[in-house]
Design goal:
- The chain is of the alpha+beta class.
- It has 2 domains: 62 residues, PRC-barrel domain (SH3 type barrels, Roll); 138 residues, no CATH class.
- 59% of the residues lie in helices and 13% in strands.
- It is built from 7 helices and 6 strands, in the order αββββββαααααα.
- It has a 6-stranded mixed sheet.
- β2 and β3 form a beta hairpin.
- α2 runs antiparallel to α3, α2 packs parallel to α4 and α3 packs antiparallel against α4.
- The relative contact order is 0.12.
Length: 263
Amino acid sequence: MSEEKLGFVGKPVKDIYGTHIGKVVGIITEIDGEIETVGVDCGSGGLKQLPYEQLVIQGEYVFFIPKWRLDAQRLLRQKSLTLKRIKALQDIVAENDSMKEDAELVSIKYEKKLSEIEGGEKQVNDRLNARLAELDAEARNIKSLLFDAKLQFRSNEMKEETYQQIRVQTDELIEHINNERTEIGNVRTKLASNTLESLNAVIPTEAAPAKEEAPAEPSQPAVVVAPVQEVVAQSAEEEKPAAVSASGTEQSETSWLNQVITK
């Protein structure tokens, strides 16, 4: 058995927002020996088989990447490239009208691809909305648990030390939920803003020739701000997951995860 396969066994599993999922107890492989799924003991939740493509090893942990995140990244990359190709075709025709007929044939191909991508975008948005509903339900359950603990503490059924421990743990869970909500919001914004219109708005800004101006009096260096449309149109490869916590170690792990996940 390869070192890669052995590396999973016995490691605790977290999601990329820091929530503990379980512990790896084994793996299932394809007929050619490639890893298919990883078996994770989730305690009372039983043994779950997690897809290998959604897992990465970092140090002593295995991190689980949400499926919606992988799908959204893939879609954003495809949409961004397709829009750039369509824009390039428009520029070619604008520069040389004799190539219009050839460009139209190629343009049909990319417009069809864009239509397929937009259909996939609706499916991704539906999954994001469903995930937000799940997160809302989880948040309500966590807050209900904390409120009940507070009642027990105020009625002298629970020690203050125990109540404080519950509050710390529930606050951490709520933080993980808020981190995922924020990332989903960012993805939805990028999907909605990644359009041909926004791309056309960026290109002239970048291509505009610099004006010749008379030398000015020395002053503080100007701050260069990238166009909003350019930032929004970046591929999902540059999307960073929210930090697991404020600790340096976990922030380092999250930074490393972002590099691996978006490859």
